[in-house]
Amino acid sequence: MAAMVASSGISSGTLTISRPLVTLRRFRAAVSYSSSHRLLHHVPISSRRLLFRNIHRVQATILQDDEEKVVVEESFKAETFTGKVPIEEPNMSSASTSAFESWIIKLEQGVNVFLTDSVIKILDTLYRDRTYARFFVLETIARVPYFAFMSVLHMYETFGWWRRADYLKVHFAESWNEMHHLLIMEELGGNSWWFDRFLAQHIATFYYFMTVFLYIVSPRMAYHFSECVESHAFETYDKFLKASGEELKNMPAPDIAVKYYTGSDLYLFDEFQTSRAPNTRRPVIENLYDVFVNIRDDEAEHCKTMRACQTLGSLRSPHSILEDDCAEEESGCVVPEAHCEGIVDCIKKSITN
């Protein structure tokens, strides 16, 4: 299966899910990257001021042998904090980025695409006509990286190499969101066959240790790989909605979905959406179609967060910005934040400092 997500550009007034130029081919993996074409654009959170954004378009392209483009109209408004100091995204064509680093980035992305493509081929072969079972496997796999990230970050904190609570908070919120996706698929019967549970659990176990290794060696590579997985999940749900939307509108929503998306405590629901201000997205769940629309939109938010994480130090918790004044005005509120990029950088900084 070949998958590619493409979308309209980013402007200062519009938040979009845009331009994954990572193309997954059936018999080969290739990477295309441009400073003017990025998979997702993350709007940093660094002040209290809110700007209402317009409804935005998402153009998701699912390309197979003879398949046409799929255009998705997103139904929710995005409200974000405006940034005091914009955080620049990595630009491989910039003068400050060495040719060697550019080559490393392309190599990392090429490996990620190959691995993602391999998993997609397995899923396409085993779950061509078993939608909910495929979703169950996909959600079991998709939540694993956040456990791996937190495991490594806790180790770094133990050695005094990392002091960034926002990363732990956001990654836990992401795992909480993916867990509820998994519970929804279980309620729909996606885990009814033992083989599906066996396959999902063993792939997830391998994926966990692989992600831990990648995150220790290169956090950027680990985050990009997770971005590829979340991008595929977005495409999968988008395609499913296009194909089965009318049928889904006549089916009831699972109880766990209603409770998660419309419950009274939505702190963690807001926490994983790092490009949005808290309380700006409140889903309405009336049928199964609404459930899958929100699951798809959740995957888009995960992609944005994973994209932002590839720039060291750019991730902020949506709720932590409310405490900025305290951190700036009262010295007692300031918590030193140490950070490093990969195990080699951590060891080097621990020795020199």
Automatic annotation (TrEMBL):
InterPro entries: AOX, AOX_sf. It catalyses: 2 a ubiquinol + O2 = 2 a ubiquinone + 2 H2O. It is found in: Membrane. GO terms for molecular function: alternative oxidase activity; metal ion binding; superoxide-generating NADPH oxidase activity; ubiquinol:oxygen oxidoreductase activity. Binds 2 iron ions per subunit. It holds the Pfam family AOX. The chain crosses the membrane at residues 135-156, 198-217. Its cofactor is Fe cation. Keywords: Electron transport, Iron, Membrane, Metal-binding, Oxidoreductase, Respiratory chain, Transmembrane, Transmembrane helix, Transport. Its EC number is 1.10.3.11. Its main location: membrane. Belongs to the alternative oxidase family. This is Ubiquinol oxidase. It comes from Cardamine amara subsp. amara.
